[in-house]
Each structure stands twice: as C-alpha cells, then as structure tokens.
Design goal:
The structure holds two protein chains of two kinds. By secondary structure, chain A is mostly helical. Chain A has 16 helices and no strands. In chain A, helix 1 runs antiparallel to helix 2 and helix 1 runs antiparallel to helix 4. Chain B contains 14 helices and 25 strands. Chain B has a four-stranded parallel β-sheet with strand order 10-9-14-15. Chain B has a four-stranded antiparallel β-sheet with strand order 16-19-17-18, with helices on one face. A three-stranded mixed β-sheet of chain B has the order 5-25-24. In chain B, helix 2 packs across helix 6 and helix 3 packs across helix 12. The two termini of chain B are about 35 Å apart. Classes of the chains: A mainly alpha, B alpha+beta.
Chain lengths: ~325, ~475
C-alpha cells in the first residue's frame, strides 16, 4: 500500500487544474485578439459573446456588449471572475503552498514567480504595450511548470493526480470550446461543409484556441473543414489537446492510482473512465454529427463530472467510518 | 549604558561603525578586527557599496521567490514581505562553540530530568530546591501529564535556547524555549543563500555544515517512536495561515515526512490515523507545531479547531509519541528559569557551564520591592510569554509605560520577573550601503533522541533598528547566517 494524504491529492489535483485553466484562458484570448482585428463588427461581437460563454460564468458577468479592453480585464484581472488568469494562478499557487513539502522546490518557485509577476501586472500597462507578449508569456510559463514537473518528480500517485487534474480540465475545455463554436457557426449551415471566408477565421480560431492548428494541418492540410475539426479535437488519440487523448491519460493515471492504493472502490472510478474511453475509441465522426454534436459533448462533460465526483468519494472525501471498518 | 559610544574610526564601508560598552563581535576595543573576522573585514574593504548592494538584492530576491515571507494583513492585496536578512555572517570560533555545546548539553539534560521529576515523584520539590507552588502555579503545568511515562524519558526532543553575549564576551542563557521553538528553517535558508552570495569567502572559512539538520531531526523523532518497525512520522501544522507555515513545509520536506493538519488525522480506539488516498494509515510520531492548548479539544481548549479529538488519550496509551511532550512549558517559565542553575546542581552535581542572567522574582516580596524601585533600569517580563511580548525595557521606556507595568506587577506578582538590562553583543550588519553594529543574540538548536545533538550554528537574530535591544522578528528584528568554524 502506498499512501498519500487525501488533502495532498486534492491540492495537487486542483493546482494542476487551475494552471491548465489559466493556460487555456490566456491562449483563447490571445488568439481572439489576433483574429478579431480582421472581423466585421457584428461577427466580432458574436465572437466575444462566445468567448464569454466559454470562459466565464455568464450569469455573474452579463458583459453583452463588452469591448476587448473590458474582456481583457474580465479574463485577466477580474477578482470576481473565478476563472480570470490572476485568480487561476493565485488558486494554483495557494494549492501548491498547501503541499509545498510534497512538490519539488523548483515547481514551487516557478509557480510563485508566476504569481508574483502577474500580481504586479496592470491592465493599462498590459494594454498599452503588447498584450500578445503577456498572454504568450503565461503559456510559456505554464509549459515551463509542466516541464519541471515532468522532468523532476517521480511517477508516484502525486504525479498521477497532477495528470488527472491537467487532462480532465483540458478535455473539458476542448469539449466546451467545440460545443459553443459549433452551436453558433454550424447549426444554420447547409449540408455542404465548404467553409466561407466569413467563418474561416472563426474555425481557425477554434483550432488555435485549442493549440491545435499546426497539428491539424499536418493531418488534414490547411483545408479547414468542420467535420475534420470535430474528428481532430474530439477523437484524435495522439494529439495532446484532444478530448480522446485527455481521457486516455486520465484513465491510465486512474489505473495507477487504483493499483497503488488498492482501495476497493477504485475499480469503480477506473470503470467509469474506461467507459468514456471506450466510447471515444470506437466513435465515428459522421455518426456523432448525425446524432447531434451538442448532446454527444454534453454526455462527455457529464461523464467527466462523474469521474471527478467518484475520485473524491474514493480517495479524498470518503467517510472515516467506512474506512475504520476496513482497518479492523 | 550608552555613555561610552565612540566611532571606531575605520575606512569605508565602516565609517559609520561605532563601538560602545557592548561586546563587539568583530572588533576589539582598539578597533582591530578579531582574528576570525579578519578575512571578512578585508573582503568588505575590497567590495564597493554597489557590489554589496547587488548581493543583498540577490539574497532578498531568493527569499521572495522561495516564498520565505510573511503576509501583511493590513493590506487588502495580501502583500508579502520577506523576513529581513542581513548579508554579513556572524562568526563563532571552535573554542567558543565548544563551551556553548557543553553548556547546552548539560542544561538540556538537567531540564529534561526536571520535567520527568515534577511529573512523577516531584523529588526536587520535596527537597525544597524549587518551590512547589512555583511549579504548580505555572500556566504551562499540565496535571494531565502526571505519572505518564514518555518514550525514553525524553520530554524535549527539540529545543531552541536563546543565548546572549555579555560585555565580557561570555555567552549566557537568556531563555530556554522548550515548547515549540521555531526558526530552524531560517537558519538553514540563511545558509543556502549565504553560499550563493559569498561562495568564495564561505569556502575559505572552513565552516561547519548544517545541512544534516533534517536527517538529524528525523532520526531523533524516529528514536522516540513506540512502533517496533518502520515508523510513520508526521509534522502537525496549524495550516497555511500560520506565520511559521513556511518553516513547517520546509522541515517536513527536509525530513521527507508528511505535513498534516488536524483535519487529516482521526483517532479511533486510542490509535491515531491519517486520511490517505489508500484509506487510513496509522501514525506513530507527531512532531507537533501547535501549542499544548490546541492539540486536543477534549482535554485542553474546547474551541480548538486545530487539534484532534482523542489525541491525548492515544498519547497516554502510548500509541503515539508527541514531540515535544505536553507540559514542557513549565520548565521554560521565566520564573522557573531563575532556578535552572540549582536544577543543574541538583540532578547532575555539576556547576552550570553557561551562566544565567540575574533574575528578580516579583513573587518574592523583597525582590519585588527592588524591581518596583528600579523599573527604569530593569527589563521586566511576563513569565509565560514569549516572542518579545509582555515586556518592558526600562531604560527605553516612558514613565507612562513604567506605571502600567507597576500596576500589572502589583496585580499579579507571580506573573513577572525582572532582569538587569543586558547590553547584548553587537555584530556588523550591512545597512543602507554601510556596515554598522547592531545587537544580536543566538538561538542554537538542540535535538534529544537517543542522545543529544547540537547543530553547529543557529539562528543569529538582529535588532535592526539602531539602538534597539529587541531581536524578535515580530518586533522589527532580522536574522543572519551563523558560522561555527573548525578553528
């Protein structure tokens, strides 16, 4: 039996999820800024609304007519937005702080330096300079953190909880971006999948926002087709930002954690992950589109939620009374 | 006490350096560097203020990035500040250290025997060497500990004794910290930074290493474990909002043990468990960094959210070791302090190697009269307090403050002691581009497991404000690296 404090597993998981979220928000907004400059006013407005739907809890922030400057504040600094970059990095750091003795000191220093830097950044400064540099920097720093993590720490349970957090978050983010963009850009289209110039930029934006454009082009060439996008972002098993890839990683890590802890309930978590993985393993893009992409993605998101819930029940927030019976 | 202030008349960066009655760690009365400081002195003459400043910034930045900080709560943005670190080392020769080491071993051995005695037969009280009401009236005396046998009879696994240097150069004991002494992590962090900013100088000096502290502490704790085989040792912290949280994480990592909070632990059938991903795992030794009052809400403070219900009974049953033991604070009570030389003679039949500071007990009518008549000359301390709180520094106080203490003392004389104002020794510090002398003390760390181990060094605390004698970090103090030499 290999033991690790439940609270530590919890903090590692959230540290990783929050960093992944900061990375995603920074990339999405960075891509948005480069695309929106070339778009007509109403197209750009719809784009902003989609971005808010994806990245912010809309009810809390009804910024319907937000300009990019407002968006920059909302997504980067707004303390009332739990998913703003500063909040995500602060939360990741707070979780890292709770487990400082468990993570490598370089990991801590990296996350601490990121935090100190973003904390001292001001919106005016950011906006009057080159916003791209800042958001790009966030992405680089998150990668650096992940690089330190992957090169420095042992593949014990802690590392696997970090993986589960990262890939569960990533799969959810990709699924969400797909869902929101397809709902608006695809639903009112004809049977033909030819992409017009109006929407071309938005489709490319979807790919770039999921760090997928270059990888997509290597598989499908620069021929941007909605069906191909779904196939790539949802089903590609070897691209690290695809939903399928993420779920595979979550599943493998759940397996290791299950083996290391030998907890009776772990088979249930593992099975839940396996079911979702199998569903993606054998899915066909045409069938998905026929049955409706939205409901398919909703199903995936629900299953991700169940996996999260069961991880908690099994490893983190279990009832002590049950476990005491096992000890006797 | 400050009548003899005179400039040392030295070249830059020492132009502002002053000597007075206090023992100067670096210079003799004739403004000559002491032999152990000569190399440092020459190095400082070579460096420009800008070069020194760069090194100071490197050190500060390193502390900031490592998160060795405290939070300024008054600031809504939660600004974090580093603990002030002074760039220049405090140097102790092998000969000086030898005396300190022997003195500390003697003192901690005697205090540990004292604790065992007063929680068992109380022979020293029956023999009237220490007044029994002094012990039983101490707010850190724990009745619950009576008759309880702690593993190997070790009550104080970790001690951080505060030493000061008298005007004649002798080291004396100012305070025994036998409860939850802190600061060891700063000692280690200061050393790490020092090796980065003065690598050449450091290697020239032949300084005794400190790195093994984590291992030594782990070994000490393991030696006190009730488990026959491999022990599960944990560090119990109040959590991330505690000001010493950095230290807790640092030490847990150095030892390779889990840092737990109260909510991670549960007691069942007098056995302590921690919640892990693989279910409950038995805990054998708890290096607890929370005070007696908070460890178990069933026995001590009912409102404690930090502790674990049932922990004390698990401890009484011998299923888990707490380090330090409960109730050790009675032996570092400032009123009991005055009796430590007698305690050493009583148990060991030896003369104390490290002297005490002369102490007046306000509980004694005659001594109390003297204290009240000399409030402007003495340092008055509340006996159960630490951290520089509840203290009056007579010569630096206003008449109003003295009156306040007069009524406090009259209200509860047992609660106060007084000592002559000691002119702590002074060491060179780098401040605003210059080297100036500031008062320092020294807190070495003593580990007591199978045997007593003393770390060669300790935390030198500095009163950074000019003229101040208070070195506590909560009162504007900083710290510096302490070098114990092999020569």
């Amino acid at each position: 039996m290999n033991a690790m404090l439940s609270r530590v597993a919890d903090s590692l998981y959230w540290m990783s999820r929050y960093l992944e979220r900061a990375d995603h928000v920074a990339r999405q907004f960075d891509v948005h800024l480069t695309i929106v400059t070339e778009q007509a006013v109403d197209v750009a407005r719809r784009r902003r609304r989609r971005l808010i739907t994806c990245l912010v809890d809309e009810e809390a922030h009804p910024a319907a007519e937000a300009a990019d400057y407002d968006l920059a504040y909302l997504l980067t600094f707004d303390e009332d937005n739990p998913s703003s970059i500063v909040n995500c990095i602060a939360a990741a750091r707070e979780n890292a702080r709770q487990v400082r003795e468990q993570i490598n000191s370089q990991m801590w220093e990296q996350i601490n330096q990121m935090y100190l830097t973003v904390r001292n950044q001001s919106l005016v400064e950011l906006w009057s300079g080159q916003p791209h540099n800042f958001y790009h920097w966030i992405n680089q720093e998150v990668y650096r953190f992940q690089g330190i993590t992957d090169s420095r720490i042992a593949r014990d349970q802690g590392w696997h909880f970090i993986q589960i957090g990262r890939y569960l978050e990533r799969a959810a983010e990709t699924a969400d971006a797909l869902n929101v963009d397809f709902r608006e850009l695809y639903s009112n289209r004809l049977e033909t999948d030819a992409v017009d110039q109006q929407t071309y930029l938005d489709w490319v934006g979807l790919l770039r926002g999921c760090a997928a454009y270059e990888a997509y082009s290597k598989v499908y060439t620069a021929n941007v087709q909605p069906r191909h996008i779904v196939e790539f972002l949802l089903l590609n098993p070897i691209f690290p930002y695809s939903v399928h890839f993420g779920i595979n990683r979550v599943q493998s890590s759940l397996q290791v954690v299950g083996e290391e802890t030998e907890t009776p309930k772990s088979a249930r978590v593992y099975r839940l992950g396996g079911r979702l993985r199998a569903m993606l393993d054998y899915a066909q893009v045409d069938e998905i589109m026929e049955g409706g992409l939205g409901s398919y993605l909703l199903n995936i998101q629900n299953q991700c939620g169940q996996i999260h819930q069961l991880i908690y029940e099994t490893y983190i927030a279990y009832s002590i009374e049950d476990k005491l019976k096992a000890v006797q | 006490m400050r009548e003899d202030v005179r400039p040392a008349a030295l070249p830059a960066p020492f132009t502002a350096y002053q000597l007075d009655d206090a023992y100067d760690e670096m210079f003799t009365a004739d403004s000559l560097p002491r032999p152990q400081y000569e190399l440092l002195y020459r190095r400082l003459l070579e460096l420009t203020p800008a070069e020194l400043e760069t090194r100071q910034q490197t050190a500060d930045l390193s502390f900031l990035h490592q998160g060795i900080t405290f939070t300024v709560y008054s600031d809504a943005r939660g600004t974090e500040r580093i603990f002030p670190y002074d760039l220049l080392p405090r140097i102790i020769t092998a000969g000086e250290w030898e005396t300190i080491e022997r003195g500390l071993v003697q003192r901690i051995t005697a205090l540990n025997l004292f604790l065992h005695d007063i929680y068992h037969r109380g022979q020293i009280l029956a023999d009237k060497v220490v007044p029994f009401d002094l012990v039983y009236s101490s707010k850190h005396y724990r009745r619950e500990m009576r008759g309880l046998d702690v593993p190997h009879g070790v009550y104080v696994a970790v001690t951080g004794t505060d030493l000061i240097r008298l005007t004649d150069g002798r080291f004396a004991v100012l305070e025994d910290n036998l409860r939850v002494p802190s600061g060891a992590s700063y000692m280690l962090a200061n050393r790490q930074v020092m090796k980065r900013v003065f690598p050449g100088l450091f290697s020239h000096y032949d300084v005794r290493p400190l790195e093994f502290y984590g291992q030594a502490l782990q070994t000490t704790l393991a030696a006190l474990s009730p488990a026959k085989e491999e022990s599960n040792i944990v560090l119990l912290s109040p959590g991330v909002y505690n000001s010493a949280y950095f230290e807790h994480t640092f030490l847990a990592r150095q030892m390779g043990i889990p840092l737990v909070e109260g909510r991670d632990l549960a007691v069942h059938d007098n056995v302590v468990y921690m919640r892990t991903t693989a279910g409950l795992r038995r805990v054998d030794v708890i290096y607890r960094r929370i005070d007696d009052d908070f460890v178990d809400p069933l026995i001590f403070r009912k409102d404690s959210m930090l502790g674990i219900a049932g922990l004390f009974n698990a401890y009484r049953s011998g299923n888990v070791t707490l380090a330090n033991a409960i109730g050790t604070g009675v032996a570092d009570d400032k009123a009991v302090y005055a009796y430590v030389p007698a305690i050493i003679r009583y148990y060991l039949g030896e003369e104390p190697i490290l002297p005490n500071i002369e102490t007046y007990q306000c509980g004694d009518e005659k001594e109390c009269g003297y204290v009240l008549a000399n409030l402007d000359q003495l340092v008055v301390k509340a006996v159960g307090e630490s951290g520089g709180y509840g203290m009056l520094v007579g010569p630096h106080s206003t008449a109003e403050e003295q009156e306040k203490f007069r009524s406090l003392i009259l209200e509860n004389p047992r609660n106060y002691i007084a000592q002559p104002t000691i002119n702590l020794s002074r060491a060179p510090c780098f401040l605003d581009g210059q080297v100036e002398a500031r008062h320092v003390d020294l807190r070495p760390y003593i580990l007591y497991g199978k045997r007593v181990t003393i770390l060669p060094g300790g935390l030198t605390r500095v009163a950074l404000r000019r003229g101040s004698l208070v070195v506590n970090s909560s009162q504007g103090g900083g710290s510096k690296d302490t070098w114990v030499l092999n020569w």
